[in-house]
Amino acid sequence: MVRDALNMAMDEEMARDDRVYLLGEEVAQYDGAYKVSRGLWKKYGDRRVIDTPITEMGFAGIAVGSAMAGLRPICEFMTFNFSMQAIDHVINSAAKTLYMSAGRVNVPIVFRGPNGAASGVAAQHSQCYAAWYGHCPGLKVLSPFSSEDAKGLLKAAIRDDDPVVFLENELVYGTPFEMSDEALSDEFVIPIGKAKVEREGKHVTLVSHSKSVELCLEAARELEGQGVECEVINLRSIRPMDEETIIKSVMKTHHLITVEGGWPQFGVGAEVCAKVFESAAFNYLDAPIVRVTGADVPMPYAKSLEQRALPQGFNIIESVKRTLNLSPAAAAYRS
Amino acid sequence: AESASLNVLSPYKVYKLDDGPPESVEVTRDDGLKFYRQMQTVRRMETAAGNLYKEKIIRGFCHLYSGQEAICVGMEAGLRPTDAIITAYRAHGWTYMRGVSVLGVLAELTGRQSGCAKGKGGSMHMYTDNFYGGNGIVGAQVPLGAGIGFAMKYQGTDNLCVALYGDGAANQGQMFEAYNMAKLWDIPCIFVCENNGFGMGTPVERASASTEYYTRGDYIPGIWVDGMDVLGVREATRWAAEYCRAGKGPLLMECATYRYHGHSMSDPGTSYRTRDEIQEVRQKRDPITGFRERLLTNNLATPEELKKIDVEVRKEVDEAVAKAKTDAELSAPNLYYNIYKQIPEDYKRISRWGGTHESIIIV
Description:
The complex is a heterodimer. Chain A is α/β, with parallel strands linked by helices. Chain A has helices spanning about 1-15, 40-50, 55-70, 85-95, 95-100, 130-135, 145-160, 180-185, 210-225, 245-255, 270-275, 305-310, 315-325, 330-335; strands at about 20-25, 50, 70-75, 110-115, 140, 165-170, 195-200, 205-210, 230-235, 235-240, 255-260, 290. In chain B, helix 8 (about 230-245) links the parallel strand 10 (about 220-225) and strand 11. In chain B, the strands form four sheets. In chain B, strands 2-10-11-7-6-4-5 form a seven-stranded mixed β-sheet, with helices on both faces. Chain B has a two-stranded antiparallel sheet with strand order 1-3.
């Protein structure tokens, strides 16, 4: 499960480096609000696994200060929604200090926690921050999908000398993914800034991150039966973004659809589009790009409305068909 | 005389403390001359900065420390070089006291490469060893300072951090968040309020329900110090540092002071106070002239010695001004350096120079 992969990553990195410590609300004695830090307090004790009061701005500031002075904090936000209380420290204190100090003071910190829509918790607790943080130079922003992503990227984030925003997804914490032997090793680290082609295909490229990758893979399986081969790219890293993998894929498939749970305007998909427009791949596009995103509304509470506010499999499938100019009959013919 | 025993200028006030720093302090001739030189250097440097601003060589924000010199000089004397400091946007004096040269400060202000942040930081963002800025966000430096103190304790040292803020910042919510955790976790941090009477143009009485800033840590003990008295500040800092090093947790310190200039260069500083008020402080409470008198009356220095220091300081600052005016700015590619310490493989920064779209790779 993704939860265990994250736990393993923190455990291994804490064992490896005494400067690494974890702080946040309920991370220690309660074992984590979502049990991601289960067992770490028992293993590492009060010095290295620290329960904070409910005081995001304060503890984010303390974490950043400690990173300036040589520690490597993992600062857990119970969810990223609460990081808005602390966003000044994420951006003004963490992201900009290396630049302002002309390279003298670096801030090796990881801000992590669940991001994106949860289930039935309404507007203030369901939101994607990938675009917010992805906007800011000085930050690295990671958004894992699978267990391997979670483990390899979190270890990379903890070892990194710069501030990293690590966007998890509560809805996949309990999802089982296979882990290769390599991924189980304590030296398994995934490089920051590289996307992963989850599935190869030649007709259309689907670019996505986090839980939406799952939707893309499901849509790709369904479309396969209709003769459409989707290439699914899991971004893994929002900032820096792996342009090369996207561009290469678009030059192969000539069609692009972006899929994300966040809002459309200035979103991750918007950035992917812009990168393609500015690249050599622009001339390879045979149809306009389509963005599949969360609806441009605050998240409603009611179940049926919430569902409509998030991308669904059929949104992707219809977008693919529209992009490829496939009527159901044409799709059948193609196969 | 080689040394003298003097009383602090104003009695300390203490909050939730059984005792306080001694009010009779010993000062050697060497220390006296050193403090005088340091305060004069900061004063002279700030005057030069004000002039460079008027000549439009310094841009943007520029907050001068004149009037508050006894705090950075006195506190530095009561600390170890391995202790850390973080302060707010009124950072020039502190930057100098932490070891940056006058040129390092002035060239930073003029945006030149000899600046301590090579011209990337400017007035509010200066750094050196164990000096973490220079933070432009009012109040943000306080939890950061608590975090630096946290790191010192975590690393098993007996160093501490001093986090400075103004009376304006004292009302920010994050102060109280930092106080709370610092006390819960016994963080070795001295929270220092430099109360200069005004948060920008608002006098303390109109901004703070309680202006007794040294008591506003509630469960954190505090000391009030006359911030115009370099010896009082040094003694109180020594005492506070000892308290923190003993593992007793954080302490608050309020230094009562005054700023002669406006809040920043765009503020003439006369709409919310009278010129007479400023003049009266200059005459009766000035930290440098007051200390000068004490050095002379206690035979710790002669007028000639002090005059010699004045001349040397003036020369040092004048030379720094000349270099700060003529030094080069960083070359254009530096625009893209120092965004990341660890640059991701193949990471491209896209720049738009001269209207053309150009991708450059920085190694």
